[in-house]
Amino acid sequence: MSLNGKVALITGSTSGIGLGVARALAGAGADIMLNGFGEAGSIETLRAELAAEFGVRVGYNAADVSKPAQIAAMVAETATSLGSVDIMVNNAGIQFVANIEDFPADRWDQIIAINLSAVFHGMKAVIPGMKTKGWGRIINIASAHGLVASAQKVAYVAAKHGVMGATKVAAIELANTGVTANAICPGWVLTPLVEKQLQDRATKDGTTVEHQTHALVAEKQPMVKFTTPAQIGGLAVFLCSDAAATMTGVPLSIDGGWTAQ
Ligand code: NAD
Predict the structure, then answer these.
(1) Distance CA 187, CA 201 (A)
(2) How far is the CA of 36 from the centre of ligand 1 (A)?
(3) pLDDT tens digit sequence for 93-119
(4) Residues 218-242: tens digit of each pLDDT
(5) Rounded CA gap, 118 and 239, in Å?
(6) Residue to substitute in 15, 43, 185 for testing ligand 1 pocket (most ligand atoms within 8 angstroms of CB)
(7) What is the residue extent of each domain of the chain?
(8) What is 7-187+227-253's CATH number, 3.40.50.720, 3.20.20.10, 3.20.20.70, 3.30.360.10?
(9) How many CA atoms lie within 13 A of 65 on its CB side?
(10) Do 173 and 126 contact (CB within 8 A), yes or no?
(11) Which protein residue's CA is at the shortest distance from atom 23 of ligand 1?
(12) Which atom of ligand 1 approaches the CA of 114 most closely?
């Protein structure tokens, strides 16, 4: 399928799942606006490599998605520099692990701002342009934790359940506009976000990261295997295709059977 002529903005695409989604959409022909944190030189190298490998236009915007005004400015800048925002992937996210009674209030605020409120502000900013064009794809990266809970992840689980609710509202409001809104719900994907959890578990238990890698996945997933960022990218490309034109408001699990139990 071809996404030639479409423009995709992917938040948190300097790393992990967001980068996998950016690569897949670029591979299908979409122009890309990257976003996320990192060292300026490495990000410029990444931007230039993506443009050269896939022959598409690739920009970068440094917006901090915990700041609503910066999200709106990023969407406006993408429309100015690349022409529009046809595909919005709300992906940026962070994690923090602690029991509720020990969970720092400022961490709660930060996770809700980045993992949930940014999804609202991103959708709000792109919807008018998508409605005007009569075509759009909103893809929110939720999680298995948008459907079920785990201990010690109160802010993350609450935010991801919130993302599911917001996605369904968008789907209903946009039902007859040519714009769909769906959520991808990954299980374990080996990215820096998970590598930190593995390191913390190994330090706490006095075991190795290798031991924790197997234990972490097996604890939740019948299939003891990580999903890759590229596989999530493949699902995002499918959601942009005509085959998915009437799929909207759906949580798409890609989780090794985690939520089948
Ligand atoms: P990651 O740490 O590799 O990447 C996170 C990205 O978000 C980075 O590019 C980072 O710079 C960016 N980011 C963080 N805070 C930001 C901010 N305030 N403004 C702009 N960008 C910001 O993590 P990942 O595992 O690729 O996670 C991506 C998304 O996938 C998250 O929403 C996460 O909750 C979700 N997810 C991950 C897994 C997993 O197992 N890794 C599973 C389910 C869902």
Answers:
(1) 18
(2) 9
(3) 999 999 999 999 999 999 999 999 999
(4) 999 999 999 999 999 999 999 999 9
(5) 21
(6) 15
(7) 7-187+227-253, 188-226
(8) 3.40.50.720
(9) 31
(10) no
(11) 193
(12) 18
